[in-house]
Amino acid sequence: MYNNMMPNQYGGSNSQPNNNHRTGHTHGHGGATTCDDGHAHLHPGVTSTPIETQEGHVHKMWGNTTFDDEHIHYYEVYTSTPIPLPGGYHTHYAEIETTESDGHTHIIKGFTKPSKS
C-alpha cells in the first residue's frame, strides 16, 4: 500500500496537519528507489518539522529524485506517526510511488533517520 496521505485523510478539519508549524525536529531520509525500466534513482532529503495530528505527529517528505537515465521523478508523502526507538529516539515510515516520467514510476519506501523529539 502506498502512503499517498494528504492532510484531509487524518480525519477531517479538527485533525488536519498544521502545515504552519515551523519549529521542532526534522529527520534525514534517503536511499534508492526500486529498480524499474533498468535503473534506480536516489532520493536524499530532510523532512519537514513535525505536523501534529490526533494520532501523533507526522512529517512531510517531498522532493525530486536524482537525475538518472536522462530524467527525474517527483515524490510527496506524509510519514507514519512516530515509531519509538531506544534512548528517546524515534523514526517514521513512508511508502510512495513517484510521479511518472519517461513512461514509468518507482517506489520509495523506508524509514527516516532516527531523531529525538
Task: Describe, in plain words, how this protein is organized in 3D.
The protein is 0% helix and 26% strand. The chain starts with 27 loop residues before the first strand and ends with a strand. It contains no helices and nine strands. The protein has 117 residues and is mainly β.
- Quote the average pLDDT: 87
Number of contiguous helices: 0
What's the shape?
Answer: elongated
Task: Tell me the major beta sheet.
Answer: 3 strands, antiparallel
Low-confidence stretches: 1-18
β-strand number: 9
Assign the structural class, choosing from mainly alpha, mainly beta, alpha/beta, alpha+beta, or little secondary structure.
Answer: mainly beta
Strand content: 25-35%
Query: Rg to the nearest angstrom?
Result: 15 Å
Order of strands across the main sheet: 5-6-9
Give the % helix: under 10%
Distance between the termini: 27 Å
